[in-house]
Design brief:
This protein has 248 residues and is of the alpha/beta class. It is built from 10 helices and 5 strands, in the order αβαβααβααβαααβα. The chain has a single domain, classed as Rossmann fold (3-Layer(aba) Sandwich), CATH 3.40.50.300.
Length: 248
């Protein structure tokens, strides 16, 4: 796989994409996804793990609300991984993650994920390069385990936002009453580490790519939502799922 360079990857939709047409297509896809998710739940043979990573203000919550939030909540769960608790720190780093893996029939969303243990931890020096390499190998094995032993399909998205757009969105949180609850002064400190985060993300893409990453241009929400909805739709429709018959 060719090494991903984020600085050479666009953060906006291609010029030939029309916003209104794309939003209409997304709406049509979401209607189809609703039926497919119902079928996934009823058949109970497969599960889906959606990993969403990205810099602060890249729009992770918006994707969950506007794409995955339209699906039946009985079959979709969301897990956000915050700072580990003392109990979690007393186990291996994947202990708390494995417990949140999707059951058959379910779509599980990770809003940030096990990848934080090789991202923010490296940027802040809590995890050295040697430990990070071991963790990457463990992550690859973990994802392979889910695939091979629970019929779990994994979609991994990196929401690729520009530095300028991030700053604009962070400033908006200070001014918009509807977004002030998201404001965290630490976000501006983290934003100063932009280049460091880019470096560890690119390392992650290179060494944890047995299940490939989708780099999603995220400066425009309508395009970001279209890309993620389309990927999930293509996955589910190709599973050749069928409703089970009457139980005997």
């Amino acid at each position: 796989m060719e090494k991903i360079s984020l600085k050479d990857t666009g953060t906006r939709a291609p010029k030939d994409f029309d916003k209104d047409i794309t939003k209409k297509k997304t709406s049509e896809i979401l209607n189809k996804l609703d039926d497919l998710q119902n079928l996934l739940f009823a058949e109970g043979k497969h599960s889906v793990l959606v990993v969403i990573q990205g810099m602060d203000a890249s729009g992770k919550d918006g994707v969950i609300r506007n794409v995955l939030g339209v699906l039946n909540p009985q079959g979709v769960t969301v897990k956000s991984f915050k700072t580990p608790t003392l109990e979690e720190l007393s186990h291996d780093f994947l202990w708390r993650v494995h417990n949140a893996a999707p059951a058959k029939g379910m779509i599980q969303i990770f809003n940030r994920s096990h990848y934080e243990d090789i991202l923010i931890t490296r940027v802040h020096g809590w995890c050295d390069d040697e430990t990070a390499k071991k963790r990457m190998n463990a992550i690859n094995d973990f994802e392979k385990l889910l695939q091979e032993h629970n019929n779990t399909y994994i979609l991994k998205f990196y929401l690729h936002i520009s530095k300028e757009e991030q700053q604009e969105r962070l400033m908006e949180r200070m001014k918009d009453p509807g977004k002030m609850w998201k404001y965290n002064e630490k976000d501006f400190e983290e934003a100063k580490l932009w280049d460091d985060y880019r470096k560890v993300y690119e390392d992650c893409f290179e060494h944890c790519n047995e299940i490939p990453w989708t780099i999603v241009p995220a400066d425009q929400n309508w395009y970001k939502e279209f890309i993620i909805a389309s990927a999930l739709y293509e996955l589910l429709k190709d599973l050749d799922m069928k409703f089970p018959g009457l139980k005997k």
